[in-house]
Amino acid sequence: MSDEPIRVLLADDHPVYRDGLALLLGSIPGIEVAGTAADGAEAVERAADLQPDVVVMDVRMPGLDGIEATRRIAADSPHIGVVVLTMSEEDATLFAAMRAGARGYLVKGANQAEIVRAITAVAHGEAIFGPAVARRVADFFAGPTLAGNPAFPQLTPRELEILSLIAAGRANAQIATALFLSPKTVRNNVSNIFAKLHVADRAEAIVRARQAGLG
Question: Among 146-150, 160-164, 172-176, 204-208, whose mean pLDDT is lowest?
Answer without folding.
Answer: 146-150
